[in-house]
Amino acid sequence: MKKIILTVLFPLTIAACSQEATEQSMPVTASSASSAITDLTAETVPAEGFVINNAKILDGMGGIIENGSIVVQGDRIVSVNNGDSEITGALTIDAEGRTLMPGFIDAHRHIITGEDPAEWLANQAESNMQAFLEAGFTTVLSAGDAGEQVLELRRMTAENEILGPRIIAAMFTGLAAAGGPDLSLGDPARFDNARPPLRATEAMPAIPEAAVRGQVQALFDNGFDAAKNVINISPGGPEEEALGMIVEETQRLGIRTITHAVTVIDTLAAVRAGVDQLVHTPHIGLLTLEEAQQVADSNIPMTSTLGIFVPFYDENNEPIFRDALPFPWDTISSAGQGPVNARLLWEAGVVYGYGTDTTYAPSLTLKHELKSLFLVFSEQDILRIMGEYAAINVAMEDQIGTLEAGKIADIVLVDGNPEDDIFDLLNVDVVVKNGHFVVDKR
Length: 442
Prior knowledge:
The chain is built from 11 helices and 18 strands. It has 2 domains: about 15-100 and about 405-440, Urease, subunit C, domain 1, CATH 2.30.40; about 105-395, Metal-dependent hydrolases (TIM Barrel). The strands form 4 sheets. Strands 1, 2, 3, 4, 5, 16, 17 and 18 form an 8-stranded mixed sheet that branches. It has a 6-stranded parallel sheet with strand order 6-7-8-9-10-11. Strands 12-15 form a two-stranded parallel sheet. It is of the alpha/beta class and about 450 residues long.
């Protein structure tokens, strides 16, 4: 088998605010701490917190401060300011002109790899979680991983038993008694029954209502944050009605419904059902302007996942799919239809956030998804997709995704200026999660 130059299997890869400053709630006086470069992950942050000065600030909402500072105390941002800030007793860091941004969010990810989830958790979780942090990711939505292990991973990262991004955990729910992808055939995106000729031509059998509702109660009882489902409408089938039941149950229980919909017809059905998050850009079929507006008017956010159907390349310049096997050319239309639909949805006003639907290295995933986004989005657009809009997709916009006073201190320092070159996002030097320095590569 050809050696893949891309490290596709994740376990193998470890690799501004607006122009007005936010009101500062701490007294500004002479700093008593040194700004000399040290390994920040080894520093003890004093009770007075820390200050990062001399940074270009991109606040995740489209705001820019050309030379500014951020003040953090505990796990919260205290202020974001024009110019330097000096706080008595605080640890003071000189960004040396780097770009300061919100921590990255992947709103659709598959984390656990390999055939044995328990082995992965025991032997690979720590290095894999560190790889997310190294790439700048401080929040990841698991859109369907081995249930027991992903819940344990969520606990371990939340309690700092291992360092890693915060985990939001979703689990699958069914909409019909048949019609799911045949996983024995390989990567399900290769053999997607949403795509003709595999798409159903007759109604799929229904699941009893008690079972549809009961599966939501079961995942809630087990502690999951969201119910995920895959909708492929069959002619006269039960899928849309079942999805409506799931939405009712998740609303009753106070969790979320996130829906995989990859065709125009399925996306519109999910919109009618009132789901909380659309976890793919429709890439099978082209949206009309009216359909795009219908999605926008629903106020349901959508994650990008554009890179899935764009070829990778091995060391012999052979195009490969995300499973490292030869690229399936019968899917290549999605590489164009997805970005076109994405731009139509953006123009209509859809809240469009970053997500990948991948299992491999986050740094590689980031590069590939940025390449796909950059077909139809500007740097300014992508920075908002990565910031505020990604946070809305995971329903944490009141906590993360932007640099504002009161928000959780999830911060990255990037060597470069992503406002001019979006691929500078790959140059992450420093990462802060919950007010703690977890990466320092300066």
